[in-house]
Amino acid sequence: xxxxxxxxxxxxxxxxxxxxxxxxxxxxxxxxxxxxxxxxxxxxxxxxxxxxxxxxxxxxxxxxxxxxxxxxxxxxxxxxxxxxxxxxxxxxxxxxxxxxxxxxxxxxxxxxxxxxxxxxxxxxxxxxxxxxxxxxxxxxxxxxxxxxxxxxxxxxxxxxxxxxxxxxxxxxxxxxxxxxxxxxxxxxxxxxxxxxxxxxxxxxxxxxxxxxxxxxxxxxxxxxxxxxxxxxxxxxxxxxxxxxxxxxxxxxxxxxxxxxxxxxxxxxxxxxxxxxxxxxxxxxxxxxxxxxxxxxxxxxxxxxxxxxxxxxxxxxx
Length: 317
Prior knowledge:
alpha+beta, elongated
């Protein structure tokens, strides 16, 4: 018998691989797989990645992605969230998702979290800024009303009551218009006497325990509804909801942190024909003609050119 590498006569000891025979020296120097990481010969099973061979231990320690949930190596496909965390797909069924940031609620990613009495799950990262008391509400309300005023959306906060509610309470208040994605709503009550308005009450209801940035965006959305009800003729639902989301978007752009960007991404990708498409059409209009012209059009009070009116109608047609 001869060595399949050097063609010289084999002695009593040799190595057999895939039907071929080798001197031990020929095999180790010229045939045996070598780990691309440590440069040593691989005996037994090995891992191939990007056409390179590795000891399993070298691959796991230096090359393999590790799961951000359990810390173990990831082989093959994995899940990747908005925040850049990679994890095994099975963990999706093992841990709840945070309702507000989409992270898996676990020790490694979020230092745990909280489950509210109405069934919502929130991670510890989001919970640290959650809105749960009157002082927090009043601070947020003043911040948003002041900022809306810079966009020519003026609202008298004295007649506004903002209440925190549970999911079940919000569903009861909204009735048939409620859906699982609802986070708040507003109610405008006017008392008339002989056709004359005597008093007006505005109630805004928002889910308790939301992170502050999310709360601000929802509050801006609902306050925009208030402004529309008080200043505009009845608008198509798509126009009204799209406008409210547009104002939330402007608030979030001003905040500009990672949480705000996450919510903006959700707005941009929302496939709902009213809230999502309505927002994208409102933003397109805002980008082309500016907010002041658009608000003037909605009010039907301040004259704008026929070209601008036609542009608005064309976008929503």
